[in-house]
Amino acid sequence: MRHSNSSPIRGEYMNIMAFALLGTLISLLMISHAQAASFNITNSDTELAMINIICKSKDDDLGVSYLKPSDSREWQFNGWPWTKFSCDFQWNVKRMQQDTWTFDFAYFHARTADINWQVYHDGLYLYLPLRRQLQFIQPWS
């Protein structure tokens, strides 16, 4: 009696592994070099007299920005897969913190290297360009 080394389960496993390897190779090709990237924050609410924003990465402190209603601030940089920027927001006594640019967030959630945030009296929103709509991310605390 002859035993076969191939089985339906083994074949399915090999297909899954090949698909995963292909996905990894495509991702590596996409991220093998830095890409121009940015994030923009807009004070979109007339109730927010002034918001203070402090943004930084592990290597760069972007300083403090003060945004009056309708004001925006944009930061541009080279977006590597390990790039991460976080911002602390303050409006009167209310605060919130958000990672404002990470590779995973940019390409898998917002689906763009250029992320646009909008701040309102109820919290922080992300603009989704493919859907042309705002997505609520978090409230003030």
Task: Summarize the structure in words.
- By secondary structure, the chain is α+β, with helices and mostly antiparallel strands.
- It has a single domain (34-138), classed as Immunoglobulin-like (Sandwich), CATH 2.60.40.
- It is built from two helices and nine strands; from the N terminus they run αββββββαβββ.
- It has helices spanning 8-31, 103-110, and strands at 35-43, 51-56, 61-67, 72-79, 84-91, 94-102, 114-120, 123-128, 133-138.
- The strands form two sheets. Strands 4-1-7-8-9 form a five-stranded mixed β-sheet.
- The longest helix has 24 residues, at 8-31.
- The radius of gyration is 21 Å and the shape is elongated.
- The mean pLDDT is 82.
The termini sit apart by 71 Å
Strand order across the biggest sheet? 4-1-7-8-9
**In the CATH hierarchy, what is the class?**
Mainly Beta
User: Count the helices. How many?
Assistant: 2
Strand content: over 45%
Number of domains: 1
Radius of gyration over all CA atoms, rounded: 21 Å
What is the SS-derived class? alpha+beta
What is the global morphology? elongated
Number of strands: 9
Topology, pairings included?
Layout: H1 8-31, E1 35-43, E2 51-56, E3 61-67, E4 72-79, E5 84-91, E6 94-102, H2 103-110, E7 114-120, E8 123-128, E9 133-138
Parallel strand pairs: 1-7
Antiparallel strand pairs: 1-4, 2-3, 2-5, 5-6, 7-8, 8-9
